[in-house]
Each structure stands twice: as C-alpha cells, then as structure tokens.
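hey
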C-alpha cells in the first residue's frame, strides 16, 4: 500500500533512514578515498624527491675558508680530472698518466733509432737502407707528434683544473703564491701540488706568506731576548761596580 509520496505505509520511515544511511556511507567512503589518495600521493612525491639526491660538486676548496667546504677528497677530484682528460682529449693517455702520477711522462724510451743495413751486396745494401730510413722517418714523426700532443694537453689540463675545478677562493690563493708566475702557471702538476697544500694546511690556505711571517717573528723574538739579556747583564755589572 502506497501513500501520496509513493512510499510504503509501514516501511516509510525505515526506507527513508536506510536511504540516508546509504547516502552517508557512500559520502564517507568518498572522503576516505580522498584521504588515502592524498597519503599515496605524498608518499610517491617523497620517494621521487629522495631518489633524486644532489651529487657532490667536483671542486677544490681551501682548508676551512668561508662558508664553502670541501665535499669530496683531493684524490677523488684528481681522479675525476684524469678520467676527463683521458676520455675527451685527443691522445690524452699520456697527459692522464702524467696527472695521475704528478710527474710528466718520460717519452724518451719510445724515441725511435735509425736502423743500419749491413748487407754485403752494395746495391742490396742501399735498397735495404733506404727502406730503413723511410721507416725511421715515419716513427720519428709519430714520436715528435706524441711529444707535442703531450705538451699541448698538459697546457689545456692546467686551464681546465684552474678554471673548472678550483673555486674562486682557491684561484685567489694560488695566484697569491710568490712562485705562481715562475713555477705554477701553465703547469698542471705544480698546480695540483699547490692545491693539495692549500687543502690540508689551514695556515697557508689563509695566509700564503705564513712561513715568511713565522721566520721574521722568530728573528724578532730572539733579538728581543738577546736585548733583554744584555740589558740585565749590563745592569748587574753596574751594580757590582757600585
């Protein structure tokens, strides 16, 4: 039996409440899905952020100068330079070995020698000697080109290390060195040796003339002591005279 609103007479209130209950449960379910979705998205964004960690900067920094600090070790940066030179420079193997060992590679053992033909027959000897001379000339050209390439690559490596792998403070400290113009400039090996000192010696990193200052300070202190001793001695002698 239906009333005017087309609801069953005996189940009208229960039917309406049941409908409300279903509507509320459905609505709450939607809110629950929203909260779950938010948590999932937050977790996913956290994972993506943590996975993209910042790589350490490959640079040389002086010891404890300013807010910048050394993120990686001296050997790590040097190995990175060696690999870069070996991969990108033309015939960069010799320069890479020189930088790794901090000694310019000696190419003298690879210098070719001119062969001498000792054939008894004069005509055959001239022909064999001509062939040996051609071979020697080709080897000599390759050897001289190898030496020239090594020199050029070392000059390029100096510019690379100084401009790319040294921060501004390290560049200033290197240029302030008294031997910069005569020894360090254009020499990557001397540059790396100086960088190593500046990275591990806090006094020299901050005061390039620290050793000279210490020597002068020591001389002044000793002179003061001598002066004081002589003054005491002269005073004692005067007292004895009195």
């Amino acid at each position: 039996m239906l009333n005017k609103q087309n609801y069953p007479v005996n189940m009208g209130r229960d039917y309406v409440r049941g409908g409300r209950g279903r509507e509320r449960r459905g609505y709450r379910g939607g809110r629950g899905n929203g909260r779950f979705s938010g948590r999932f998205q937050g977790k996913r964004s956290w994972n993506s952020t943590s996975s993209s960690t910042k790589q350490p900067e490959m640079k040389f920094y002086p010891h404890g100068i300013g807010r910048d600090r050394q993120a990686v070790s001296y050997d790590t940066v040097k190995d990175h330079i060696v690999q870069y030179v070996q991969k990108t420079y033309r015939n960069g193997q010799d320069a890479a070995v020189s930088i790794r060992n901090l000694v310019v590679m000696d190419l003298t053992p690879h210098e070719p020698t001119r062969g001498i033909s000792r054939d008894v027959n004069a005509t055959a000897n001239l022909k064999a000697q001509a062939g040996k001379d051609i071979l020697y000339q080709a080897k000599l050209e390759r050897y001289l080109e190898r030496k020239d390439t090594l020199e050029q690559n070392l000059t390029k490596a100096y510019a690379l290390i100084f401009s790319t792998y040294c921060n501004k403070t390290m560049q200033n400290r290197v240029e302030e060195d008294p031997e910069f113009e005569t020894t360090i400039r254009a020499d990557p090996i001397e540059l790396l040796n100086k960088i190593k000192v500046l990275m591990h010696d806090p006094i020299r990193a901050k005061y390039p003339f620290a050793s000279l200052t210490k020597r002068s300070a020591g001389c002044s202190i000793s002179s003061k002591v001598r002066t004081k001793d002589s003054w005491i001695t002269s005073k004692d002698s005067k007292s004895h005279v009195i």
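The chain has two domains: 1-52, 74-207. Residues 1-52 form one domain.
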